[in-house]
Recover the amino acids of this structure.
């Protein structure tokens, strides 16, 4: 399938040689991988524990506390850790364990941690770093053309890592040394595609999506073979004419094939239902919707796909016919909880349009829609739970004042669900913008832009049963993109707009600990435990900070410092 | 799209437009790079040639009609200087009903320059141009705007058409003027800090968060205090603007702008 795809692309471009080269490399790697697999199998038969540096696939199903094996830590996207060594009672003594710098490369990535090694990324770059001591293991760099807006992280399968690139390629690296196993093209970068997301590994599927809405290209999500990069399935986010959903696009125009719908964030997965949940990006042209009347499925939707076939099982659309860039890519967070007296398998999303949605994730049944912050664009909620847009909020040549602005009431930064408090936490912003539709002929690309006037950020705890704000903590003026982590230590980690890393009480938002990090958190904190010591990792700009309790507080009795030696040293 | 703007107070707006333009420029740069600086004269000549020879099927602006939209064309995206476009023009697409068209190398280069310029325009549409025509914004009623200014809007409490707003419309571009009318950011907060001793220090705020307040005092020196130990009274000159943002209707905005624009 991959071969056909390349051929199709080559027919209309001048990069035949380049692509053939990639194909050849691909096949060479396939052979190499074949040998490797055989070798690994032999080793595994002889001594199952020898490949202990790779990722045990079982860890993805029930992550033990010493591993953070995927972008969100586990498949649910709740970003809650059961670790409690660092807790509300001792967080005041949290101290710096180590610092790792990535000069010039801003980190928006959530590191993976597997067997004592951290793997994280920035556009064009992947680092492997010792999770105990913060020392570099290896650094991979592949410079490419394309948008370098940010990078969320890598995925791992056994001993391989998967890394997406600005020129919309997928790179498979050997986790041991950062060497390249293979590289495949996901989409044609010349058309405006790029990639920033951390793929999601589900059994023997590497699920990967693409970015790019400056040009009117078509979004898709695909699954590739972890060993070869061959396409297993590809699901386009807009239907073909005649297929279900195509009735939400105009007939007899090219709109449906240029309708956008990027898949630029990592989704979640329910192993019991074998369903992938993915948030889909905004339609194109972005602000000028006059050429695409209709709901524009499946843009700005949450979709459930069969993980093995990529077939659509159900969908829900938070923003029908979006004209504000409010993609619905925010994490579809999965948890099982009581809803109106019934235990249900839930999916909750705090969406970029300012509304909180709760669905039954088995079938997509709508359960709740509630605004989680002020907004001025919607007049109510329709019978299917979708916000109704006010006509006057549509971008216009003379400008439409709307809250929120195109950056959204929230965005890609990680939310969290804490099963101990039963609260859903979201980084929520008030943004006032004037949206201009600047189109004079046929709309192409964005077709306009909003001008931001004022923004303010808050961290909010929502009651998932009602969507009501249980507590609100101001983060300061401006647009925060700090993610959230909660832990069993009754702590919530995030940051304010003044560069303070915060440990809050998740029940009421009170600050328990803070430190000025010297820059804003543009990623999400994560945590793991090694050798009985819990670490909290916080990427700030181009510095990765590791915090832990003082070693003396966490080390075992036999490793405590000999008092005599200390006294002796003290004499000097 | 991937909205990831940074967010410090003062850089907020700049960063917004930067992020928007970086995105466009990133692609623009790669397109421009791949076509070795399309010059405008060539694109202008190309426009005429295109409209005569190709416009009937592909539309005058190349956005497609009977023939495909060439602004979104993968072939155009991969073309550098007409080498791919020229092949199609000279050979046609007989299977799709496009006849071959004789053309000189110069004509093909010009048409290619035009098509690349059109693709660039689409990329650039993710930003509002600084020379956006003010006429497009003048859809309101200046009299109603004046009425709002002097009445419900409460604008005259702080502003005067013959004082601080005299000639205001000459100072800014259309979009800039509208943005500043709604929220003239950059005005600094000031604070009065009362120390436990009762001593008061006041001045423009340099830093303010949940934990620390810092101002420049009367003598110009930086002074910082733990929020827990002092009493802080903040004065925000933009508070009235923020309250107004919550209340404004689209008509208010257009009326007010039409009125403010008349102040020149």
């Amino acid at each position: 399938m991959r071969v056909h795809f390349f051929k199709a692309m080559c027919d209309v471009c001048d990069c035949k040689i380049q692509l053939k080269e990639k194909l050849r490399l691909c096949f060479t790697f396939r052979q190499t991988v074949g040998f490797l697999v055989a070798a690994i199998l032999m080793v595994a038969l002889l001594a199952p524990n020898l490949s202990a540096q790779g990722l045990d696939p079982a860890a993805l199903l029930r992550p033990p506390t010493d591993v953070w094996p995927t972008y969100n830590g586990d498949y649910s996207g709740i970003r809650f850790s059961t670790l409690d060594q660092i807790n509300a009672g001792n967080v005041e003594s949290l101290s710096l364990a180590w610092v790792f710098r990535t000069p010039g490369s801003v980190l928006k990535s959530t590191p993976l941690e597997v067997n004592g090694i951290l793997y994280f990324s920035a556009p064009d770059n992947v680092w492997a770093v010792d999770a105990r001591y913060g020392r570099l293991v290896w650094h991979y760099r592949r410079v490419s053309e394309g948008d370098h807006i940010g990078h969320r992280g890598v995925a791992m399968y056994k001993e391989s890592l998967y890394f997406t690139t600005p020129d919309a390629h997928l790179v498979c690296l050997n986790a041991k040394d950062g060497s390249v196993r293979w590289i495949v093209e996901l989409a044609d970068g010349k058309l405006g595609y790029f990639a920033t997301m951390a793929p999601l590994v589900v059994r023997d599927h590497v699920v990967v999506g693409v970015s790019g809405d400056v040009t009117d290209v078509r979004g898709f999500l695909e699954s590739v073979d972890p060993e070869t990069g061959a396409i297993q399935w590809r699901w386009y986010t807009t239907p073909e004419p005649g297929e279900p959903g195509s009735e939400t696009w105009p007939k007899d125009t090219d709109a449906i094939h240029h309708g956008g719908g990027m898949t630029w964030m990592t989704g979640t997965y329910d192993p019991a239902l074998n369903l992938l949940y993915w948030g889909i990006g905004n339609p194109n042209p972005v602000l000028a919707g006059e050429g695409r009347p209709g709901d524009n499925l499946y843009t700005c939707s949450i979709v459930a796909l069969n993980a093995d076939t990529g077939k659509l099982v159900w969908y829900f659309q938070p923003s029908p016919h979006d004209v504000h860039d409010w993609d619905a890519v925010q994490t579809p967070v999965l948890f099982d909880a009581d809803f109106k007296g019934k235990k249900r398998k839930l999916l909750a999303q705090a969406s970029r349009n300012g509304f909180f949605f709760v669905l039954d994730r088995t079938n997509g049944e709508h359960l709740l829609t509630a605004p989680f912050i002020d907004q001025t664009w919607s007049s109510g909620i329709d019978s299917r739970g979708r916000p109704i847009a006010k006509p006057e909020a549509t971008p216009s040549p003379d400008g439409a004042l709307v809250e929120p602005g195109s950056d959204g009431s929230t965005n890609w930064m990680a939310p969290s669900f804490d099963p101990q408090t039963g609260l859903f936490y979201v980084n929520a912003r008030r943004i006032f913008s004037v949206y201009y539709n600047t189109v004079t002929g046929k709309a192409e690309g964005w077709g306009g832009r909003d001008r931001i006037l004022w923004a303010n950020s808050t961290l909010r705890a929502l009651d998932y049963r009602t969507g009501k704000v249980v507590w609100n903590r101001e983060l300061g003026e401006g647009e925060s993109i700090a993610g959230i982590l909660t832990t069993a230590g009754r702590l919530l980690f995030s940051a304010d707009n003044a560069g303070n890393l915060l440990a809050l009480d998740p029940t009421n938002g009170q600050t328990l600990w803070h430190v000025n990090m010297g820059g804003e958190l543009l990623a999400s904190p994560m945590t793991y435990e090694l050798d009985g010591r819990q670490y909290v990792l916080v990427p700030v700009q181009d510095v990765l900070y590791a915090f832990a309790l003082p070693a003396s507080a966490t080390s075992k009795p036999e490793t405590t410092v000999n008092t005599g030696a200390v006294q002796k040293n003290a004499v000097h | 799209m991937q909205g990831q703007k940074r967010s410090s107070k003062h850089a907020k707006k700049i960063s917004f437009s930067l992020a928007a333009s970086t995105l466009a420029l990133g692609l623009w740069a790669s397109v421009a790079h791949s076509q070795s600086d399309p010059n405008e004269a060539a694109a202008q000549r190309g426009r005429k040639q295109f409209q005569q020879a190709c416009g009937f099927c592909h539309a005058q602006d190349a956005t497609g009609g009977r023939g495909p939209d060439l602004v979104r064309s993968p072939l155009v995206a991969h073309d550098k200087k007409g080498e791919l476009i020229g092949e199609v023009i000279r050979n046609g697409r007989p299977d799709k009903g496009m006849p071959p068209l004789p053309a000189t190398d110069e004509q093909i280069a010009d048409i290619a320059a035009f098509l690349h310029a059109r693709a660039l325009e689409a990329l650039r549409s993710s930003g509002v141009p600084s020379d956006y025509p003010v006429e497009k914004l003048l859809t309101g009623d200046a009299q109603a705007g004046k009425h709002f200014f002097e009445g419900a809007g409460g604008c005259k409490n702080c502003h005067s058409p013959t004082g601080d707003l005299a000639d205001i419309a000459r100072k800014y571009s259309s979009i800039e003027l509208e943005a500043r009318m709604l929220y003239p950011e950059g005005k600094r907060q000031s604070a009065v800090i009362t120390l436990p001793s009762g001593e008061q220090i006041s001045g423009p705020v340099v830093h303010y968060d949940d934990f620390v307040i810092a101002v420049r005092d009367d003598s110009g020196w930086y002074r910082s205090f733990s929020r827990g130990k002092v009493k802080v009274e903040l004065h925000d000159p933009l508070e009235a603007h923020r309250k107004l943002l919550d209340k404004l209707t689209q008509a208010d905005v257009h009326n007010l702008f039409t009125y403010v624009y008349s102040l020149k």
